[in-house]
Amino acid sequence: MSRVAYVNGRYLPHRKATVHVEDRGYQFADGVYEVCEIRDQRIIDERRHMERLQRSLKEVRIQLPMSLRALSVVLHETVRRNHVCNGIVYLQITRGVARRDFTFPSSTTTPSVVVTARNLDRAGGEKTAHNGIVVATMPDQRWARVDIKSVSLLPNVLAKQAAKDQGAREAWLVDDRGFVTEGGSSNAWIVTDQGKLVTRPTDHDILRGITRTVLLDVIAAEGLELEERPFTVEEAYAEREAFVSSASQIVMPVIRIDGRNIGTGKPGPIALALRRTFHRKAEFS
Ligand code: PLP
After folding, report:
1. Distance, CA 107 to ligand 1 centroid (Å)?
2. Model-level pTM greater than 0.85?
3. Ligand 1 centre and the CA of 246: distance in Å?
4. 196 assigned to active site
């Protein structure tokens, strides 16, 4: 089935979907993005993702070049045209095309908007969750504003590749005091021996994951205890469970970190339960 991408007002065959060489996303990583889960042809938590998008745009001073309503139509249309049943929709907005110069281009430059969507193997995702994933820790070498969902992801790329080279599926980034910030493309969680969920508070050191936000509602509804505080790698090694959260992985149990088994070395019951119940608190559109 042929894929379609939305590029600046047009739906194009995926292989012909290109941006200009002087797009500032290409030249400077001068742009922001969002990824939403698609489940049963519906977009998950679109409202929250669009709120975060608006915040990211504001922080980097890019103006959304269309109404939110029009953008929503484009997201849904891209999902529809790609026949996505279960997968993701990706949205990227850059400062647009202009002669390469570090400072902002003229205010008449229109930001670029690209939307793609694709199916993911839902059964495969369930199988991965059933088996759990392996994590390797890496130094967090990112900039100081990772709360902005910027397309500038080189440190994440390098950390995730280094993790992959060690046979791990995700990198857990560690700050210079030995505390885990988050995953290379996910938020990081542990479950203590007392059954408390621990995740780092959202300041400028992590991205405020939408999945993380919804999980806070799920945790409250299930009557589970939550501590928003930094945790060290050593603590993670010793606790009962670990998992990551993101739009594309939902809740993914972690069974090993840096070669050490977490808990029994099998996916933990709390992580699996949160994965099962997550969509009760999520919004479908
Ligand atoms: N942290 C980082 C660095 C990410 O890249 C992502 C998702 O891509 C997340 C956290 C999880 O965010 P969300 O739950 O909104 O997908």
Report:
1. 30
2. yes
3. 5
4. no
